[in-house]
Design a protein that fits this description.
Chains A, B: This is LacI family transcriptional regulator. The structure is a homodimer. The first copy, chain A, has about 350 residues and is an alpha/beta fold. Chain A is about 45% helix and about 15% strand. Chain A binds a DNA duplex (16 and 16 nucleotides) through helix 2 and helix 4.
Chain lengths: ~350, ~350
DNA sequence: GTGAAAGCGCTAACAA
DNA sequence: TTGTTAGCGCTTTCAC
């Protein structure tokens, strides 16, 4: 890499002259500016990022800590973050906590040594179970702002981007009730994390508003055979005529299994799941999905963080942004499910 | 963040003494070392990464350029890279090229300003179509090594990690032939990229070895309705009794569609697809999959890059590592498909 | 209009 | 054993 020093020597001017010329300082003579820029162009000079970071005490880099990159929703949020961050002139350093509290702590630690200006993260499962938040608070008190998305720690004062999980699930369940469904089940593979709980509560509320109904819930555990569990669940509960799935796999497997067991979808059973467009392709009929607009969530998180970084001195109050889901209806539910 | 300067002042010693003490230099007295370490611990001192990078002219950071993070295989490779890199003491800066040549060039450019020590990347689709490689060569000549994985540019001299796509597809197709299948189709949603072509060629070779057979190929385009295309393809070609799918969605949709059209899997039709474990859960029966061991690929790429970074002076020859796929057989093919 | 010098945080050669 | 100094690449204040 060419440095200012090298350019300066070659041009027989001082380093600071070169620096100023390249930064369009008024101080420098027109002719000099031209010469400097020409040579810089020729050598493809690019200011050294590390030196700039050191000097200006900011890296223009965001630390992103994702619990699980193989989760399609989280990958999509990452996509949104990356795109927005790039647009705003920031790079992202990605760490994967793998749902582990220790890895999360460690990532925070390692990047807080000057590598990044702030963090965007979704809380690891283990962290949520143990309800630990000190590492977040410590990071923030060190002057590194955090934006949390989706799985957030409510006890931590920081900017947040969340989904209206409770309302969305409540409304989806209401929709199935309005179709006339009487035995609606809730299937979840994400019972341990905050959003999973919110979804379950939204479902339960809608069900319990009918005095003659009770929630029917199937929780899948990590170690379970996902397909087998749902198969035997549907076999045992033959009267189930509706399913709300808290995660994409459960929704897909529910439809495919129901069809396989000879049920007609949506005649005999309606299915709605949290999933993305690509997922809905994996069933026939396509799965009706609650879309979380992951990319928007990511973009919002990036915007909030950058905004805070650029207004650190103002000490603004923390904000929570709610990104509304939308229900994309397909043939996995009855046509007129609104009265 | 606490700095050496602050510690030094508080302890009434010089900065270098503090530095040496923390780095366990033999030079410093036992007692001094103790005092320094104590205070450093108290203040939770961490050496400033940026300053270190500047000083040592290396960042211990790897630039990773992924064409598409929503592709499960690529996400999984990223996972493998991250884990191995972390293990080796490296961070990763992630850029997403979004299959665009310009974004790929730009990412390379931006990170080559001192932000990273080297790159791990998979070539963008547009880059492969236009067959551009200058930006890679330029980066390498600037002293930043590249490791390419999966989609590689053969004209670029650099380390590579690839999959035995050709052989794996050839063998899978042979397997179906050995079952006695006569009308085996190849379905691909990734016809434009190098690995897609390799897979098609592997399939074609196996088919053409039978003098009475012809390849039957369905290429899905980006703008197509994936489900519809496969549906009408299978409807039009009712005699198809085997499918090799080049990508995971095609495999899943093929099974679900076949079942939907009243075919028995695997009695009437066998299906094999490039897909991961999670995907195979999305069909009944489960999809027989060619596993690419994405995490292993990622880990290998990270190892190769770090090895090269740590042996830059040796100027070793470039290597290409082939990671073998494995075929995971399930009930989507006939039990005895080997003669 | 140009340059010298300080300083961001750190390491290391050299001096004391 | 400890301290001084220079230098990594850059910006910026202050002299000239």
């Amino acid at each position: 890499m060419v440095t200012l020093k090298q350019l300066a020597r070659e041009l027989n001017v001082s380093i600071s002259t070169v620096s100023k010329a390249l930064n369009n300082s008024e101080e420098i003579g027109e002719e000099t500016v031209r010469r400097v820029k020409e040579l810089a162009e020729l050598y493809n000079y690019k200011p050294n990022k590390v030196a700039l970071s050191l000097k200006q005490n900011k890296t223009k880099t965001i630390g992103v800590i994702i619990p699980n990159i193989l989760n399609h929703f989280l990958a999509k949020v990452l996509f949104g973050i990356e795109r927005e961050a790039t647009k705003l002139g920031y790079n992202i350093i990605t760490c994967i906590s793998n749902e582990s509290l220790d890895k999360e702590k460690e990532s925070l630690q390692i990047l807080a040594n000057g590598s990044v200006d702030g963090f965007i993260l979704s809380v690891a499962e283990e962290t949520q179970i143990k309800n630990e938040v000190d590492h977040f608070k410590k990071t923030i008190s060190q002057g590194l702002p955090i934006v949390m998305f989706d799985r957030v720690a409510h006890d931590v004062m920081c900017d947040k981007v969340i989904v209206d999980d409770f309302d969305a699930t409540y409304n989806a369940t209401k929709g199935l009730l309005n179709e006339g469904r009487k035995r609606i089940a809730f299937i979840s593979n994400i019972d341990q994390i905050s959003v999973g709980k919110l979804r379950e509560r939204g479902y339960a509320k809608a069900i319990l508003e009918n005095h003659d109904m009770e929630p029917i819930t199937l929780i899948i555990k990590k170690k379970d055979d996902h397909q087998k569990k749902i198969k035997s669940f549907l076999k045992k509960n033959k009267d189930i005529d509706g399913v709300i799935a808290a995660d994409s796999s459960s929704g897909i497997i529910a439809i495919n299994t129901a069809v396989n067991q000879g049920k007609k979808v949506p005649k005999d059973i309606s299915v709605i799941g949290y999933a993305s467009r690509a997922d809905s392709n994996h069933t026939l009929p396509r799965l009706t999905t609650i879309r979380q607009h992951a990319k928007v969530i990511g973009a919002n998180a990036a915007q909030m963080l950058v905004h805070r970084l650029q207004n650190m001195h103002l000490n603004e109050d923390v904000k929570t942004k709610i990104v509304k889901t939308s229900l994309v209806k397909t043939k996995s539910i009855l046509k007129e499910n609104n009265p």
